[in-house]
Amino acid sequence: MNKATDRKAKIRKLFLVFFRIGAFTFGGGLAMIPFIKREIVDNHHWIEEEDIVDIFAIVQSVPGVIAVNSAIFVGYRVAGILGSVASALGVVLPSFVVIAVIATFFTTFKSIPVVANAFEGISAGVTALIVSALLNLRKASIKDVYGWIIAGCVFIVMTVTKISAVYLLLASAILGLIISHVRKKKGW
Amino acid sequence: MVKLLIELFFTFFKIGMFTIGGGYAMIPLIQQEIVDHGWMTFKETVDMIAVSEMTPGPFAINSATFVGVKTGGIIGAAVATLGVVLPSFIIVVLVAKYSTRFRNEPMVQSALYGLRPAVIGLIAASAFSIATASFFTISNDGSALSISGLLSNIGGTVDFKSIFIFIVAMIAGIKYKVHPILLIVLSGVLGIILYAI
Question: Which of A35, A57, A181, B60 has the most CB atoms in a 10 Å sphere around its CB?
Answer without folding.
Answer: B60
